[in-house]
Automatic annotation (TrEMBL):
Localization per Swiss-Prot or TrEMBL: Cell membrane
Name by which UniProt lists this protein: Copper transport protein
Species of provenance: Streptomyces rishiriensis
Domain of life of the native organism: Bacteria
Transmembrane regions: 146-163, 175-193, 221-240, 252-273, 293-311, 323-343, 355-376, 466-487
Residue segments, region Disordered: 402-450
CopC domain ranges (all copies): 20-116
One protein family per Pfam: CopC
Keyword Transmembrane helix set for record: yes
Family annotation (PANTHER family): INNER MEMBRANE PROTEIN YEBZ (PTHR34820)
Residue intervals of the Copper resistance protein D domain: 318-388
UniProt KW keywords: Cell membrane, Copper, Membrane, Metal-binding, Signal, Transmembrane, Transmembrane helix
Topology with respect to the bilayer: Multi-pass membrane protein
Compositional bias ranges of the Low complexity kind: 424-434
């Protein structure tokens, strides 16, 4: 049902991207050639990004690092990153490696090149753009998975005690404490690893004070600190209710409201720092994430509590029945919120199989299906046990009623009436006998699996199915952890589009060599090359800049330069670009190329009154 609903929603249409920033553009553009050194490098992303101390690394043509200023946002826009460059940058091909943190707390990185004047003869190799250190990333994912498990134990056990009201909660006290300590420890662990995780360094940098200080100033860091504060409040509530837990008292309304509020706030610390906090429909996504986490914790943590009681104490059937109803409600919430979050994360039907996020989601859906099958089996066992117990109770009531009836003698007293007891009571039942309950009391069903072999068999079957649920639930939590660190399918499509756009040079650069006068005997030829830049190199109006270089690679001035374009396949042209001398270079503000394809660009260079040459080169014009 979940998969089918997701497919229907995806077929209805998508929307803008959700979570994980992608590079939208760069200035200078990747692969571009600029005449003069730029004063700064500016990157534009699809959403807000956070900057690191080492967000930019710029290398010169000799692969030496360039001294740059501190990274910041351009014009106060959170979706940009800018670094200032030194005034005397030099010429050749420069390499830029960048790294930022997207709004949903996950780091992204990349690299590109641009050239000043002329490209280097040997382009430098791009530096590594690995998003994370493998050791740090693995440890960070382990910490996140442990945090999910701990939250399920803490919230789910507390909800089980409050709603199902087991008579003996002593075995569950240790489960509560284990959940609290595990969540507190994993939160501190994640807080320390947050800096190395974002910067892509090794786990040995976890204790670096500067990295920890920077983490405390970010939204994910503040969310982890808030989680620790909430856990301190949870500890205070547990101490307040310690005596009540020991004696099995029913929690008061104030305790229930306080616990529910703390559970909701704990779930919010995940929603505020993960995929739900960025992209489309943020308020709805965060609400859905909080409900999804709470339902997950109540169901899976309750399973762990029930399994603990099966092995440590007697479990009345009413406790199992209440948890069965609570689990059913949790599953309903999980399905509704899961459908929404799957639609929001995927964006298209093809993303289910074409993206890593979609494939992991399919694996998680398969695990959830197994979990539901095990849950349905447990529910059937509970229903059969309850039905059998009701039949037993009715049989006992009928037997007691028959034993309480004594035939009355016609015309006289019943036997036993001589001592003044009412007729119709069996002897020895007027006062509560020591051997049995008063007639007014109904027989109570014993604890699950405490009496008959059939009930004991049902208990063992229920214990096995609950154990299977717990095991599969751990697998589901592992898939959930991986999903939280994976680029959503909807964002992957946006990232591919943005990277394709950003990866193409904004300007199409073509270099055309020429030689004039070399054919006449005794005449020394004049050689050089013309570098023509079309911006953006696509259909429609393009800006054109042309620079003439001499044989030594320096700029030269010529009396005339003409540029024209033809599209032989469509019998279009020649179209005169009408370039003009702009004082050292030639340019035209608007050259209209109406169709995409392989255009022929003809350049005519005149170096004197009588000497000129024309050369042609193909230029690809995109859509």
């Amino acid at each position: 049902m979940l998969l089918g609903t997701v497919l229907v929603l995806l077929l209805l249409g998508g929307g803008p991207a959700s979570a994980h920033a992608a590079l939208r553009g760069a200035d200078p553009a990747d692969g571009s050639v600029v005449k003069t050194a730029p004063g700064a490098i500016t990157l534009t992303f699809t959403e807000s990004v956070g900057l690191l101390d080492d967000s930019f690394r710029v290398f010169d043509p000799d692969n030496r690092r360039v001294d740059t200023g501190e990274a910041g946002h351009a014009d106060g826009r959170a979706d940009t990153a800018r670094i200032k460059l030194p005034a005397k940058l030099g010429t050749g091909t420069f390499t830029v490696a960048w790294r930022v943190v997207s709004e949903d707390s996950h780091p992204i990185a990349g690299a590109f090149t641009f050239s000043v004047g002329t490209p280097s003869a040997t382009p430098p190799a791009l530096p590594s753009t690995s998003v994370e250190n493998p050791a740090t990333g693995g440890l960070f994912n382990i910490g996140r998975c442990l945090a999910y498990v701990a939250a399920a134990l803490l919230i789910g056990t507390a909800a089980f005690i409050a709603v199902c009201r087991p008579p003996d909660v002593r075995p569950l006290r240790r489960l509560l404490l284990a959940g609290w300590w595990a969540l507190a420890g994993s939160t501190v662990f994640l807080l320390l690893l947050r800096g190395p995780y974002e910067s892509g360094t090794g786990p040995t940098q976890a204790l670096d004070p500067s990295g920890l200080a920077r983490t405390l100033g970010t939204r994910p860091g503040l969310a982890l600190v808030a989680r620790l504060v909430l856990l301190a409040a949870v500890a205070a509530v547990l101490l307040w209710r310690r005596k009540a837990l020991r004696e099995g008292e029913r929690p008061s309304r104030a305790a229930l409201l306080t616990g529910a509020a703390l559970a909701g706030c704990l779930a919010l610390t995940w929603a505020a720092a993960e995929h739900a906090s960025a992209g489309i429909q943020v308020p709805a996504a965060m609400t859905s994430t909080v409900l999804h986490l709470l339902a997950m914790a109540v169901w899976l943590g309750g399973l762990a509590a029930l399994l603990t009681l099966f092995y440590r104490a007697s479990v009345p059937s009413r406790v199992v029945g209440r948890f069965s109803q609570l689990a059913g409600l949790s599953v309903s919430v999980l399905v509704v919120t899961g459908v929404y979050q799957s639609w929001r994360g995927l964006g298209s039907v093809s993303a289910l199989t074409d993206t890593t996020y979609g494939r992991i989601l399919l694996a998680k859906l398969a695990a959830v299906t197994l979990l539901l099958i095990a849950g349905a089996r447990s529910r059937r066992t509970v229903t059969r046990e309850r039905t059998a117990r009701n039949v037993t109770v009715e049989a006992v009531e009928v037997r007691e009623e028959r034993e309480a009836r004594v035939p009355e003698t016609v015309g006289g007293r019943a036997e036993g009436a001589a001592d003044g007891r009412p007729v119709g009571r069996a002897a020895g039942t007027a006062d509560a006998p020591a051997g049995g309950p008063p007639p007014s009391e109904k027989p109570r069903p014993p604890a699950l699996g405490a009496l008959t072999p059939a009930e004991d068999a049902q208990r063992r079957a229920l214990r096995r199915s609950v154990l299977a649920e717990v095991v599969v639930s751990v697998v589901v939590l592992v898939f959930t952890t991986v999903l939280t660190g994976t680029l959503p399918g909807r964002a992957a499509a946006e990232a591919a589009t943005a990277e394709q756009s950003a990866g193409l040079p904004v300007a199409s650069v073509t270099t055309i060599p020429f030689v004039i006068g070399s054919g006449a005997p005794g005449v020394r030829g004049v050689s050089g090359k013309v570098q023509v830049t079309l911006d953006p190199g696509r259909v429609g109006d393009n800006g054109l800049q042309a620079v003439v270089y001499g044989p030594d690679g320096g700029f030269v001035s010529i009396p005339e330069l003409r540029v024209s374009f033809s599209l032989p396949g469509q019998d279009i042209g020649p179209l005169d670009a009408k370039v003009g001398d702009r004082g050292g270079y030639w340019a035209a503000d608007a050259v209209n190329l109406p169709l995409p394809g392989a255009w022929e660009m003809k350049v005519t260079v005149r170096v004197s009154e009588t000497d000129q040459v024309s050369e042609s080169e193909r230029v690809e014009i995109g859509r």
